[in-house]
Prior knowledge:
The protein is α/β, with parallel strands linked by helices. The protein is built from 8 helices and 16 strands.
Amino acid sequence: xxxxxxxxxxxxxxxxxxxxxxxxxxxxxxxxxxxxxxxxxxxxxxxxxxxxxxxxxxxxxxxxxxxxxxxxxxxxxxxxxxxxxxxxxxxxxxxxxxxxxxxxxxxxxxxxxxxxxxxxxxxxxxxxxxxxxxxxxxxxxxxxxxxxxxxxxxxxxxxxxxxxxxxxxxxxxxxxxxxxxxxxxxxxxxxxxxxxxxxxxxxxxxxxxxxxxxxxxxxxxxxxxxxxxxxxxxxxxxxxxxxxxxxxxxxxxxxx
Length: 256
């Protein structure tokens, strides 16, 4: 199984600044931020599932355009997985015939271009080739989850947007084959109050988070805000804990 980073920035501004999206093999997205827009049409057509961590725009921006682009060229609906709360937000505020057409009823409800699949914390979706995606608890300003992506080669955890979360730490520590941990850190410590109010991590909170991890995964940092990325990374690299976080980048591939 391969996981490719399509977008990992907390903002936009140039080709290297694409918002959150991970491509699992050729057919699964974890979030669908602006990085999805760099895929060719044939690549977009292969995507069958999108697992959404939460409903904020930088994580779901390309879902409406993706289904509009490939819907009539597919034999089966594109399936969007998320918590009941997240799917309710998407239905109410995006696919509502005001912001965007309701593709779950186009061309009709028996044969739609888009299907929503509820997924609660702790539940797993079993995909082809022995792949499993499980929803883990996260803590953000809207209902949110992290995802564990697993196959015979091990597991990868993507935190999505979260602040310090004991339930997420416990869930991560219960994964015996964790190889990679992708965790957000949006702001430097100078903006810790903003990080706390917006329920993101900053380097000092990240240090507390990582100090509680009992396994030895490779740790990758995502969701850096472009205007503060250098300062935030400098603080992260001074973290003196057991784990050694590194910045993620577009095009990076994880092989499990």
